[in-house]
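Q: How would the C-alpha cells look for this protein?
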Amino acid sequence: MSGMGRREFVALLGGAAAAWPLKAGAQQMPVIGLLNGQSSAASTSLLAAFRQGLKEAGYFEGRNLAIVYRSAEGDVTRLPELAAELVQIPVAALAAVGGDGAVRSAKAATATIPIVFTTAGDPVETGIVASLNRPGGNVTGATFLGSLVAAKQIGLLRDVVPNLATIGLLTTRSISMAASITREVQTAAHAGGLKAVVVDIISEGDIDAAFAQFADQRVDALVISSGVIFARLLDRIIALAARHAVPAIWNDRPYPAAGGLMSYGADNRDAYRQAAVYVGRILRGDKPGDLPVVQSTKFELVINMKTAKALGLTVPPGLLAIADEVIE
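A: Here is the predicted structure in C-alpha cell form.
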C-alpha cells in the first residue's frame, strides 16, 4: 500500500470503527476499493472529485461507506498485485483510475465484482468495453477522450506561436491510445499545413534525448501526450521545455499549474465525479453492464502567463477571454 493509502486506510478504520454496528447480525457499511495507477500526490484533486460524486450519490466516506485505497504510485507493474488485494478483501465495487493499466488489472482480477473506470482513451477501441451504450459484463465508467483534442491543441499553439511550421508530439507506446493520439496529431498537422515530428519514449531515461531530437528537427511547439510516465516526469518536462524554449501544451491542468505554458482537454475531475456517481448507483443495485459509458463534455483551457512571457510569447486577448483559468 502507498504511504498515503496506508495512512488513509488506517485513519478510515479508526473513524469507521465507531460507525460500524457492533452487535452481531447488524449490517455493515459497504466497502469499495480504489485502484490508482498514478501517484497519490498527483491525484489529490481527482480523488476529491471522486468523493464529491459519492456524496451526490448519497455516500459519505466513514459514515455509510468505507474506501480501501491502493496506489501504484506511478509504477504500473504493481497494479495486478494491488488489484488482487482489493478483490480478496472482497470489495463491493472496484474503482480503477489513473490510467488504463488500472482498468486492465482490475478486469484481470475479477469478472464478477463491478468495476467502474476512468480513462482518457476510447474504451471500445482499447477493448475495455464492448460498446459505449451497452458496456456489458461487470465494467462501466467515464472517459475524457484525451486523444480527440489534438486539432484544438494545435490551433491554440498556433494562436500564440508566431510562424508555427513544425509541431512535435511527445508520446509513449506504453499507453493504449498512443496510436490514436499520433493519428489525430498527424491529421491535424497535415490539415493545417504543418510538419509533424513524433517522438515515442519507452522509459523515463529517454526524455532528454527526446527533447534533443525535437531541437534537431527545429520543432516550434510541442503537444504532450497523456500517460502515467509523463505525470511522473512533469517537473522534468517543464524544465526541458524551458531550457529548449519550446512552447508546449498538455491536456491537463497540473502542467500549467506547475509552470508549463498551457493545457486544454476534458476536465478529468468531472470524469472522476461521474465515475463515483456510477459506483453509488451500483451499490444501490444497478448492473454496470447496463450503465452507458459517460463521455465528458466539460473542457477547460488553462494558460500560464508567467511562462508565456518567459518564452517571449504574446497571448491574444481573445484567447485570454475564453480561458477557464489564467495563471499569473
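The two ends are 37 Å apart (CA to CA).

Residues 3-19 form the longest helix (17 residues).

Upvote if useful.
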